[in-house]
Design brief:
Helix content of chain C: 25-40%
Largest sheet of chain C: 6 strands, mixed, barrel
Helix content of chain A: 25-40%
Number of helices of chain A: 13
Number of strands of chain C: 21
Number of helices of chain C: 21
Shape of chain C: globular
Radius of gyration of chain C: 24 Å
CATH class of the largest domain in chain C: Alpha Beta
Largest interface: B-C, 97 and 144 residues
Largest sheet of chain A: 8 strands, mixed
Oligomer: heterotrimer
Number of domains of chain C: 3
Structural class of chain C: alpha/beta
Strand content of chain A: 15-25%
CATH architecture of the largest domain in chain C: 3-Layer(aba) Sandwich
Chains: A alpha+beta (348), B alpha+beta (133), C alpha/beta (531)
Number of domains of chain A: 2
Distance between the termini of chain C: 53 Å
Distance between the termini of chain A: 53 Å
Strand content of chain C: 15-25%
Strand order of the largest sheet of chain A: 3-2-6-7-8-9-1-10
Structural class of chain A: alpha+beta
Amino acid sequence: MIDLQEMILEKDRLIPLLRKLKKESRLIAPVTNKHGDTLLSEINNIDRDTIDLDRQPQNSLKSFFLPQQEILAHYSVDTTGYNFTAPEAAKETIYFGVRSCDLTALLYMDLIFSKPAKDASYYDRRNRSVIITLGCNDPFANCFCEATNSGPYLDYGYDLQFIDLGSSYYVAAGRRKGADLLNKWDYFFRTVEEEDQKIRYQLFLEARGRFNRNIQVSHACHKLQEEEVAETIWEKLAGRCYDCGGCAYVCPTCTCFSVDDMAIDDSHGTRIRSWDACTSSGFTRMAGNHNPTDRTRHALKQRFLHKLKYDYQKHGKASCTGCGRCVDICFGGVDITTFIEMFTRDAS
Amino acid sequence: MQNVMTICNYCGCGCGVYLCVDNNRVVGSYPSRNHPISRGNLCSKGWHLHQFIHSRNRLREPLLRKNGELLPVSWDEALDVTADALHKSRERSGPDSIGVLASAKCSNEENYLLQKFTRAGLGTNNIDHCARL
Amino acid sequence: MTNSIEELGSADVLLVTGSNTTETHPQIGRNILEAVDGGAKLIVIDPRRTDLAKEAHIHLNLRPGTDIALINCMMRIILDEDLADDLFISMRTENFIPLRDYLHRLDLDELSATTGIELKKIHEAACIYARSSKSVICYCLGVTQHSCGTDNVQAVANLAMLTGNVEKKHSGVDPLRGQNNVQGACDMAALPAVLPGYQAITDSAIRDRFQAVWKREIPAVPGLSLTEMTHSGKDGAIRAMFIMGENPLISDPHLSRVQETFENLDFLAVSDIFLTETAQHAHVVFPAASFAEKRGTITNSERRVQLCRQAIPPIANCRPDSEIIMELGKRLDCPGMDFESSDEIMEEISLLTPIYGGMHYDRLEQSHGLQWPCWNRDHEGTEFLHKYYFTRGKGQFTITRHQEPAERPDRTYPYTLVTGRGSYHHYHTATMTRNSKRLVREYPEALLEINAQDAKTLQLQDGEKVELLSRRGKVRITITITDRVQPGTVFSSFHFFEVPINQLTTSVMDPKSKCPEFKVCSVNLQKVKHD
C-alpha cells in the first residue's frame, strides 16, 4: 500500500483513466466551451467535452458544494403543521483538475459547515466526493496563492494531487479515497523514479517565482491584529462598491447564504438555500429597518475583516485563498487586493 | 446540471450569462468571463436573473374575461376570441381602430413578426413600444 | 451608441449627461470608471448627485430642463477659446455659420444663470471636453425625456461636431439604450413610421420590397405613437389593442388618461409572463414564455445582435410570443405566418433589412454577436458608426434655443419632480425584479429623494410618508433625505405599482420624438396627518 502513495501517470493514460472513473461516478472537470469560457462542468461525453487543464475555471468548487440555489427540503402544510421531506441524496462525484486554492477553500468550508452541527446537505455531498487536484506550474494572471499559503502545490487535503511533469503526471495520494483509486487502477500507473522527483522539485521552485502579483496578505493580517483600518479607506472602498455581490458569489470561501420558502401552491413548497453577500444592505437589515451596517460607509468592511482579521484570529489563517477570481471583475475596482494594497501602504 | 449561455434580460448592456439548469429548472445565473460585456461579473439584477422564472406568480394558462372575471380557458378559445375581436374592430371601425404595442423585452424575431402581423395582417401602422419610457 | 461599450474604457474625456450609468447601465459604468482610473477626465451633467457624479472631475448640476442653455454656453466658450475643429467642420458638416452667429449673440452670464451653474465650472468643462480628440458623450433619458428632447439631442450633436469628436474610435455620441432589446425593437420597426432597418414607410419603393415578400398591401400613412394610443381616451380612435410584454398602466405618463382609454376599449388582449396591471384590464390574457424558455436574438445598446438560447421548455401552459402572433396571424388570414423557428424568421429579416443583412444564426451561434450595420455574410459588423460619413452625408448643425419646461414651479406646486429608474435592484415596471426575492429584499419600497434643506422646511423626518401632489393626481410615498437631489427638486422612480408616480407626470411630450416630459413636473409635498 505505502508504495502506491505516489505514482506516475503518462499523459496518454489520462483519458483512459478518466473514462474508467466516469463509469463509476459523476465526473466534474474544467471544460472550455464553445463560448470560450472554462467552467468546472459535468463531463457527459469524455471524447467530446474538452477538458482544459491550462485555464482557470471561472467557477469554484463552491458551485457544487454550496450551490447558488439548492433545495434543502420539500414541505407540505396541513392541519398538523409542516411536514418536511429531504431532497434527493447526492451522487458519488469525482472532481478532477481542481486547483490548489479551490481545495484549500473547500477545507475551509468543511470547517464552516461542521459547526455547531454538521450541515446535512453540505456533508452529504462532501462525503460522496473525491477531489483530484492539479498543482499550478504557471500561476494565472491575478493569482496570489503563495501569499495565502494555499498553493501552487499542496501538502495535504487532496485525495489525489496531480503535478504536470511535461509528458506525464506525478500523482500523489493524500487521503484514503485517493490511495484506493491508485490501488484500483494501478495498471495505468508506473512507479516514481529519481528523475521524476527532480523535475517535480524544479517545477515547484519555478512556479513559486512566477506570480505576477505580490500581495502582502500576511503583512495585512498581522497589521490588522494591531491596528484599526482608517475610516477614509472604508469610505473610499464603500464609495466604489455598487452592491452587485459578485465578489462574494465568485469567491470560493464566501459562505453567506439565506434560506427562503418558495411556495408551489398553498399547501406545498420547497425550502431553498441560496448564495447571499454580506456586502448587501438587506443582509444585515433587521425588523423595524434598523441596520447595524452603514453601507454607504462600510460596504466592504465585514467582508474584508472577516477574511483577513477574524478568520486569522480564529483559525490562524486568512480565509482568502488567493484564487484571484474577484480581481478585475469589480465594477468599482475595489477588490480584496485593492484593500490590502491600500491598507499595507497606509502609514507604514 | 447544465450551463446554457444566453443574454441577460434586463438592461441594454447585454451581458453574456449562463443559466444553470437542473431538471428543467433554472437554479442559477453565472457571468461569462469571455463575453465582451459581462467580463466575469453581473450586476445584482443579473446575478438573480433566475429568480423570477419559476415564480409562483407566473401566468400559467390563457385567461378570458367572463362576467367580469378572468378565467382559465384553452389556447384555442383565447386565440379565437382575440382574432374575432380584432377582425370585428377592423370591420366596424377600420384597421386604424386597432393599436398594437410590441416590447423592448421581446426578441427581434418576435418584434419583427408582430409588426408584420400589424401591417400586413391587421392593415395598420399603429405599432409602437416603450422606446421613450 | 455610435461607439462600442469597450471603447469607453480607453477614452480620454467622458461627458456623461442625463444618465445614472452605474445604476442603470452597470457594465457601461464599469468601463467609464476604468477610464477614470486610467487617468481619463469625467464630466457629469445631471441635476442629481449620482454615484457617477461623485466620481466626476466636474459635476455640472444644472437646473432640470436647462440642457440646451448649458450646451450652448459650452459651445460659445469653445468658440471663444478657439478650440473648435475647423477642419472637421469644413470637411464633414454644413450649416455651421448660422449656429456660430447665433452663439456669438448669446450672453454667457445669462446662460450660466439659466442653468444655475457658475460660469467658471462650465468654462472648465468645455475646455476639457474640447481639448481632447478622444472625447466621448454618453447620454440617456435625462436628455430625451423633455418637451425639447429632440433639441437637447441636437445640441449634444452640435457640441460633438463642433469639436470633431465623432467618426473615430473612442469619440462619438452614445445614447445608452435602456431595455435589453429596445434597440432591436426599434431596428425591427415596432415603430409607427418605419419598416425594419429604419426604412421609411412613406417610400413606395421600400413598401414594394416588403409587399413582394409579405404578399400584402402595407398602409403608407404612419401610425400612432404609443402615448397617442394609450392616451386616445374614452371615445378615441383606438377601439381594440393587442399588447405584448408591456405595462403602460405603470410606465406611461399621466396614468389617469391611460386608465380612461383602457377602461373604454372594446377589446384588449395582453401577452405577458405575469398578470401585470395592464393585463388585469384585459379581456384576454396570454401566458407567454419567458426569455429562458425560447430562442431568439436581441440587440444591445452598442448594436450588438446576440443570440439568446433556450434553457428550459416553456413552463406550465405557456407559449413563446412568436407562436401567439403566428396563431393570431393565421386566424386573420395573414400570409407568411408559418415560421418553424426563430432562425427562419431571421432569414426573412436579413433579406429585408439591409443593416441586418449579414445576421445569420450560424454566425451568431459561433460568436458573441455581430454589431450592425452588418451588410452581408462576409461583413464582420461595425464597431463604431459614421466612419467617413454620417448617415445623411454631411453632419448638419442646427440652432437650438433654450426653452423652459412645460411646467414651472409656482406657489401651489413649488417643487420639481424628476422621475426615472430609481433603484439599482429594480427594472422598469418591476414585474420581473419584484418577483425576485433578493431584489425585493434589497429595495422593498418606493422612495422619494428629498434634500435635507427642503425636509427641514417641511418638517419631515427620514422614512416618513408624504402625500405628493401634481395637477394631475397624488400618491403617498416614503421620503429619504439625501444630498443626491438639490433643494427644490425631488426624485422618484416608477417601479412600484403601489406608488404609481406616473399619475403625477405630465402628458406634454416632445413634438418630434413623442417622448414624454418625465424629467420635469411641478409638485407639492404634504405631511400625512395621522389620525
